[in-house]
Amino acid sequence: MSTPGSPRALEVTNLSTHIKLSRSTVQAVGNVDLGIDAGETLGLVGESGCGKSMLALSILGLLPSGGRIVEGSVKLEGNELVGLPDADLRRLRGNEVAMIFQDSLSSLNPTKTIGVQVAEPVRVHRGASRKEARDRALEVLELVGLPNPKERLGQYPHHLSGGLRQRVMIAVALACEPKVLLADEPTTALDVTIQAQILALLDDLEDRLGMATLLVTHDMGVVAGRANRISVMYAGRIVETAATEQIFGAMRHPYTQALLGSIPRLDQDNRKALVSIRGLPPDLTDPPRGCRFAPRCPRATDQCREQEPPLTGSGPDHLFACWHPVDGLAEPPKVYAQPSAAVETTARSNGHLLEIADVVREYPVTAGMVLQRKVNSVKAVSGVSLQVAAGEALGLVGESGCGKTTLGKLIVGIEKPDAGRIALGGREVFVLRGRGLRRARRDLQMMFQDPYASLDPRMRVQAILREPLVVQGVGSRKEQDGKIRQLLEEVGLPAGALERYPHEFSGGQRQRIALARVLMLEPKVIVADEPVSALDVSIRSQVLNLMKRLQAEHQRASVVISHDLAVVKYLADRIAVMYLGKVVELGTGDDIYRRPVHPYTDALIKTIPVPDPAVERAKREVGIRGELPSPIYPPSGCRFRTRCPRARAQCAEQEPLLRRFGPTHQAACHFPLREPDGAPVSAATPRSPSHPG
Amino acid sequence: MTDGRVKPLGEAEAPLSHPDLLSTVAEGGEVQVIASGWRLAVREFASNRVAVIGVAILVFFVLFCFIGPLIYPTNQSLTQPLKANLPPGAATPLGGTAGPLGTDEHGFDELGRIMLGGQTALEIGFFAALISIVIGTLYGAVSGLSGRLVDGVMMRFVDIVYSIPFLFIVLILATKFSATVLEESLLLGFFSWLVPARLMRGEVLTLRERDFVWAARVMGSGRPRLVYRHLIPNALSVVIVNVTFLVADSILALAYLGFLGFGLQYPAASWGDMLGNADTYISNGQWWLVYPVGFCLVAVVMACNLVGDGLRDALDVRLRRR
Questions:
Q1: Contacts of A391 by beta carbon, 8 Å cutoff, 6+ apart
Q2: Top-confidence residue, B240 or A1
Q3: Does A459 touch chain B (CB under 8 A)?
């Protein structure tokens, strides 16, 4: 790897960082070793709270208050950074070492123009004149592929979309041609199609500028195609470091193996439960004595619980910290899965339980301080028709702003449609008022995305679970108690949880409580809006398995909304792909994944990062180009035409209708990837797809 | 395994069932027992030295004003012109000496009078704050939860009332009413609910978009349940912090009124009245009529503000140092 004599671009040895709180000390980073050469990308992967961001901040000397490097060294091209006075560090930051942050909206200054912000590091570090700095800013903005950089110089961050802002952030980082680039979750806040563009850009820049890049992420798919080597971090320790192929194909640490196994994948059979890691990561204020993974590890022995394994391995190229390493994929991970979910798609009744017909929801855009004239509207949902049969799970998938969440809110009546109808069991629900409406709400319940916001922080779990029954006046107090206990057990929480407040639970546990609350009223339809996107990978698979099992046991219809096609494919029987307020393709999971006909679906599947280096490296094209058009002015005709490689004149003139491509498969495209089977399905009264089995 | 595709691990094996592994630990993992949010807040508050000093000052004044007269009984109802304006410790013409803080122009013992005035100050401060916080909280919650039209009307009403000079109105009303402690509290309370109403409305506007409020709506909760079970408990920290500042404001307002001559009816005393009366004597060098009262007033108001700041730091998670 590194040639002797020439120091590596970045070398971290035995680095430990502690953060002192008022009553305890978080041992955020412990004895970390890593090195990156120029022109190399090291992927640093781990779940939230594992210390990966703290490690990146330690390198820059930008620790939060109370944070302190207690031992170890950080060398930048052989020069020690730990212990340098702040003034010297300031000279390095943004100059020799630069950082890209996750949230481009809060990381850019909203009151300064883009040109000024990109020029700032050049002015500070190079002492460039205003004119020189401006020229440099223009140059870097061109480099990062910002369209019309000259005009953008005078714009403010809020004028740009998330993807373009992230490009500006990268431009700021690159303005002084740093030797080391620290990218902390650079694409986590972005949509998959934009994420692919940004990752391709980072890759390209690294090749051209020859920097050393530390790519910090929680997403195995992101590092699979980009990193030369990967370090896996768990509870403040690096547990395994190896070349990318080794990590994915011949990992030795049980954590790496289980982590990879718990990611739902598009090409996997959704009748099988996911691998999941039992329990929760340890509390870093009081970490376990031995191996930090031991409490959750199926292979743990007494030695693991007593002695911490050192980071050694088969050679300098493959390091791991484990007493009882696994041997790659030869022995499959022991899974702590629920007793088989028995997820068989049972025969569905033919009638529609939930019927959504031509539903439209537009949010007015007003102008004028006093009169608030309606000048235009954001077209969130534009004429969507879908049906859900009893016991069926329908998935809604699409990028942010495609209207999937609005549609979910329309179904449970948080929003009212501007046109169209939503009927449950043939009866329109939200024209009801008063008592009738309250009674009807029982049948439509919603599970929210953010488990930290969806439970009232001032209520105990018992009161939270009781609330739906009290509101609906169901059962006596004793019956309510019985039901609360039964459901709490079903979602896998100890009975002691009843007396606790939400802040005492982890994100995954909260989502379990939310799931139990949704089931309290035995609704006919459950809408789950991004049920696992706020959770970590190992916890996500627990919750997904649980949802899958409860789906099978309770036989309730559900609508699963997610930006993650793999999650939707795992949970849903049928999937509707949405783009800018329209359903563009509808079919079973295999229809969508194996036989997509709409160019958008096809590109979306190709863009999703797969935790498999062979697949990721084979990807050459960036998938979908450009940005999502504004939903205030959606394109005429087919809304996807502005980004579609197959678009022709007809697409702009005529809106495509849903056409049938198979017994369960429909798509709306003039020039599909495959010729349709039948005549167009009228948008107004689409025939129901019959279900196999 | 560098060539070929990696087999997804999830398929590597059929789902196992390990009942023995599941039986010991609930599948969702153990629940960490953390102290309740309120207990954390108390701990945070207790570690804030300045706030604890504030509490100590308040406790001292409550004891001083309400228990003090039992230990140091003085005549505060019959004027004794012969004992008027005696400096601390001076011999009185009737024999004996004046109290440690002397006497005022009516011959009342100044220390005892400060205790008496402190009683009314604390009582009125507390009642007025209570009245205004109840009105303000409910008004703000209803306004924040209502539609745009009702909310607009309710808040414009607040704007209008807010633009009327508060002291001016109170002074006019004070002349019409014969002020007792209760009446003065009502008067001050009815004019100081505007700030809590605005604060509460702002809090409700953010709370009502939170998912747990939406979840309650999806269950079919009516507006009263939303207000009492979800919005008020979650806005309580804002309300509690505001109460302490309101107490301070009310005590100050009472002092203004007293100073301007619209204080409480005789025989009740207030610190404002005492300061107002003393105004004429300060030029004669009778310092004991001004500084002790002034000091008490400043100390109590400052203590309220210190406690309020401490509570805000303790209850607002964003400000908590953890």
A1: A346, A348, A349, A555, A556, A557
A2: B240
A3: yes
For B47, name the nearest residue in chain A, comparing CA atoms only: A22
Number of domains chain B is built from: 1
* Chain A residue with minimum CA distance to B24: A494
- Among candidates B4, B220, B230 on the partner chain, residue whose Cβ is nearest the Cβ of A438: B220
How close, in Å, is residue A550 to chain B by CA atoms? 14
Predicted local confidence at residue A234, as pLDDT: 92
Sheet holding A318-320, edge to edge: A97-100, A180-184, A212-217, A41-45, A229-234, A237-243, A318-320, A312-315
- Distance, in Å, from the CA atom of A366 to the CA atom of A373, rounded to the nearest integer, reads 5
Beta strands in chain B (DSSP E): none
pLDDT (tens digit, 9 = 90+) per residue, B2-20?
Answer: 343 333 333 333 333 333 3
Q: Which residues of chain B neighbour A510 with C-beta distances below 8 Å?
A: none
**Gap between the Cα atoms of A99 and A631, Å rounded:** 33
Mark which residues 238-257 of A lie under 8 Å from B by CB.
Answer: 245, 248-250, 257
Does the CB of A227 have a partner CB in chain B at under 8 Å? no
Cis peptide before A468 (omega within 30 of 0): no
Q: Which residue in B7, B16, B313, B315 has the most chain A C-beta atoms within 10 A of its own C-beta, making it the best mutation to test that interface?
A: B16
Query: Cβ of B218 and A413 within 8 Å?
Result: yes
User: What pTM did the predictor assign?
Assistant: 0.79
CB contact under 8 A, A278 and B322: no
Answer whether B28 sits within 8 Å of A491, measured CB to CB. Answer: yes
Is B12 a domain residue? no
Residue B13 domain-assigned (yes or no): no
B28 located within any domain: no
What is the domain range of residue B124?
Answer: 37-68+110-319
Answer yes or no: do A335 and B15 touch at CB < 8 A: yes
- Calculate the CA A380 to chain-centre distance: 22
Read off the pLDDT of residues A234-258 as tens digits, 9 standing for 90 and up. 989 999 999 998 888 888 898 998 8
**65-84 in B: which are within 8 Å (CB) of A?**
none
Minimum Cα–Cα distance from A281: chain B residue: B29
Q: Using CA atoms, how far apart are residues A168 and A504, in angstroms rounded to an integer? A: 39
Measured CA to CA in angstroms, residue A439 lies from A233, A417, A430, B17 at distances of: 50, 20, 11, 40
Residues pairing with A20 in the sheet: A25
The three-point CA angle A118-A121-A127 to 5° equals 120
Query: Which CATH number fits the domain that encloses residue B196?
Result: 1.10.3720.10
C-alpha separations of A378 from A165, A581, A632, B109 in Å: 22, 10, 4, 74
Q: Is residue B104 part of a domain?
A: no
Nearest-angstrom CA–CA distance, B4 and B10: 18
Contact A576, A583 (CB under 8 A): yes
Q: Which residues, 6 or more positions from A129, have their beta carbon under 8 angstroms from its beta carbon?
A: none
Q: Are strands A419-424 and A352-367 parallel, antiparallel or unpaired?
A: antiparallel
Nearest to A216 by CA among A204, A226, A205: A226
Q: Where are the domains of chain A?
A: 104-177
pLDDT at A499 over 50: yes
Helix locations, A210-352, DSSP H: 220-224, 244-249, 254-261, 302-306
Max CA distance (Å), chain B: 112
Task: Decide: residue A358, CB within 10 A, 0-12 exposed, 13-18 middle, 19+ buried.
Answer: middle
Positive or negative: CA dihedral A624, A629, A222, A407: negative
- Which of A5-9, A106-110, B256-260 holds the top average pLDDT? A106-110
Q: How many CB pairs under 8 A join A and B?
A: 192
In this complex, do A458 and B236 lie within 8 Å of one another by their Cβ atoms?
A: yes
